[in-house]
TrEMBL record:
GO CC, alphabetical: endoplasmic reticulum membrane
Record-given protein name: Very-long-chain (3R)-3-hydroxyacyl-CoA dehydratase
EC nos: 4.2.1.134
Pathway linked to the protein: Lipid metabolism; fatty acid biosynthesis
Primary localisation category: endoplasmic reticulum
InterPro entries, per database record: Tyr_Pase-like_PTPLA (IPR007482)
Gene Ontology BP terms: fatty acid elongation; sphingolipid biosynthetic process; very long-chain fatty acid biosynthetic process
Gene Ontology molecular function, alphabetical: very-long-chain (3R)-3-hydroxyacyl-CoA dehydratase activity
Taxonomic source organism: Meyerozyma guilliermondii (strain ATCC 6260 / CBS 566 / DSM 6381 / JCM 1539 / NBRC 10279 / NRRL Y-324) (Yeast)
Catalytic activity: a very-long-chain (3R)-3-hydroxyacyl-CoA = a very-long-chain (2E)-enoyl-CoA + H2O
Function: Catalyzes the third of the four reactions of the long-chain fatty acids elongation cycle. This endoplasmic reticulum-bound enzymatic process, allows the addition of two carbons to the chain of long- and very long-chain fatty acids/VLCFAs per cycle. This enzyme catalyzes the dehydration of the 3-hydroxyacyl-CoA intermediate into trans-2,3-enoyl-CoA, within each cycle of fatty acid elongation. Thereby, it participates to the production of VLCFAs of different chain lengths that are involved in multiple biological processes as precursors of membrane lipids and lipid mediators.
Length: 218
């Protein structure tokens, strides 16, 4: 047991960068699977078969993001614990609170499930690839540009898709779990506009900071 403990300490504490590079690289690869499934299965099968074939693996991959809460909590990354937890649990609400808890919700067979999967997967492939590359060495300019530009489109489409998923599930939530769940979902929808505004404006400031600095250096 002591030997295993030392190995764990070596991998995760003594060399946190190696752990983070591995986690971000694996996450980028997993979200590539989601993107592949959404594009090719969506084109060949369409809805509702796309949901039936992909919802479990998408749920599993998204659930892996709870590791980010741990990384923030122990200081492996600089992301604020509150912001990280909020973002992760908003995603978990969709995959567990809608896709798994309400499998017959009309949202699951709607086009918003497709735009949700596309927005999430493209965002995460870019984000995790950027993080992994940044930890390993210099980041290519094109990847930095993607990281701090694509959010202009992907954040609005992702958030609108999440809201659509929740809204279209309200009646099913009431029928399956009761009115308390329906009103809980309604309350959560109300938190999206201020949360989106804060995150969106933050990313705009970060874009100016990062890309503006690169331009000055050139």
């Amino acid at each position: 047991m002591k030997f295993q403990s030392r190995i764990s300490h070596f991998l995760f504490m003594s060399h946190p960068n190696k752990w983070l590079i591995a986690y971000n690289s694996i996450s980028a690869s997993l979200w590539t699977i989601v993107l592949f499934n959404t594009i090719f299965l969506g084109a060949s099968l369409g809805q509702p078969l796309l949901f039936d074939k992909t919802n479990k693996i998408t749920t599993a991959i998204q659930t892996l993001a709870v590791v980010e809460i741990y990384n923030s909590l122990v200081g492996n990354v600089k992301s604020p614990i509150f912001t990280t937890t909020t973002q992760v649990f908003s995603r978990l609400l969709i995959v567990w609170g809608i896709c798994q808890a309400l499998p017959n919700s009309p949202a699951n067979s709607h086009w918003c499930y497709i735009t949700l999967s596309l927005s999430w997967s493209i965002t995460e492939i870019i984000r995790y690839s950027y993080y992994a590359t940044n930890l390993a060495g210099p980041v290519p300019q094109w990847l930095t540009w993607l990281r701090y530009t694509t959010f202009y489109v992907l954040y609005p489409t992702g958030v609108s898709s999440e809201i659509s998923m929740i809204y279209l599930s309200l009646n099913e939530a009431s029928a399956v779990l009761g009115d308390w769940y329906k009103w809980t979902l309604i309350a959560i929808i109300c938190t999206y506009p201020p949360g989106f505004y804060m995150l969106y404006t933050y990313m705009i400031k970060q874009r100016k900071k990062v890309l503006g600095t690169k331009k000055k250096l050139q």
